[in-house]
Structure formats: structure tokens, C-alpha cells
Amino acid sequence: MPGLRRLAATATLLLLCPLAAMAADARTQLKAFVAEIKTATGSFTQSTTGPQGNPQRPQSGTFAFQRPGKFKWAVSQPYEQLVVSDGQQVYQYDPDLAQVTVRKVDQAIGTSPAAILFGSGELEQAFEVSALPARDGMEWLRAKPRNADAGFAQVDIGMRGNLPARVELLDAFGQTTRVELSNIQANPALPAGEFGFTPPAGVDVVKM
């Protein structure tokens, strides 16, 4: 699923409360993150590189989530785009196209990286999980979707200090999307309407 426009819609990032064992493997840290962190906010930067090594223009923005299945992924640079899930439906708003795409949550994030980071289910139900060698100061795991129609081949997640710090996704077209996560705040109180979305007047609404 290349670029933030796809990754975010399925999308796709986040945090974990501090634990005592800093050397815990990535799977242990990720499971604790899913179990202990119910809401979070943070920032991201994202870059996508094609199979020939051609990089796309990097993107940046902010995110928030509330388990299970509610999240907001807001791209601010180099263009604006918003992906919001209210727990029932996922809205992807592109101001440049004046278009909102609407999907059911299970269609949009059921077996996507977003299911790992924003969901509440068992990781092994939807993914084959394996450990990877530590690198770049992070502990790593690889998750391969059991569903052949997931739209991506694998996603590697790097954990540092019990926080998801980097996500690297390889899609079916050989493109690699890297998302760096930062400024993560664990379990903040979020406004009641944080994950609500009403399409602006005059935009096209496409239901998938």
C-alpha cells in the first residue's frame, strides 16, 4: 500500500508505556503496548521508495488513536490529507481532490498495519510474526499477513524504549514505506468528538 495516502487509510502508528525490562524483545514490547495503551497522540514523518530506489516526496503530520479502531491520521506537509476512523467507518478526505472516500472499518484495517497498532485483537490471528535482528538501536519484528489480499507483503516494526519507533512496510509492488514515530503521549484524555467527521459541503463522497 504505497505512500501515506494508502498506508494511513488502512493505515496505519504509535506508543507503549515504559516497562522495567528495556531489553524485552519486540513482540513482548508490542503486546504490552497493545494491552496497556488505550489512547495516544504523536507525530510522524513518512517516506516511500520505489523498487528502483526512487524516493517520493516525504510527508509529515500528527496522529491520535483510541482503541479499538478509532484513529486520526492528519498529513500537514507537503499537502493536507485527513484519515479518520470513528470505529465504524474510515473517512479519507483529500482537499485537493475535494473528495471523501468512505469504507467500513473491517474493510479498511482488518489485516493492515493499522490493525496491529490501533486494534485490540491477537497479533497472530491475522499475521505470521517472526523476530528480526536488532538494528538502528531498536528491537524488531516482522508481521506477514495471513490474508493474501491484504495489499502488502510484510511490515517490520521497530521498538525502542518500549515504544513503536519505526514502521517499514513492503507493498505488493516492491515499494517500501518508512514511517518514523515521535512525540508520543500515552493515554491522554481526548475530546469527545476527536474521531468524528462530517464531509465538508460540496465535496464528492465515494462509498466503497
UniProtKB/TrEMBL annotation:
Annotated source species: Bordetella genomosp. 7
Protein's recorded name: Outer-membrane lipoprotein carrier protein
Pfam assignment, any one: LolA
Subcellular location: Periplasm
Gene of this entry: lolA
Record GO cellular component, one term: periplasmic space
Keyword vocabulary terms for this entry: Chaperone, Lipoprotein, Periplasm, Protein transport, Signal, Transport
Taxonomic superkingdom: Bacteria
PANTHER family, per the entry: OUTER-MEMBRANE LIPOPROTEIN CARRIER PROTEIN (PTHR35869)
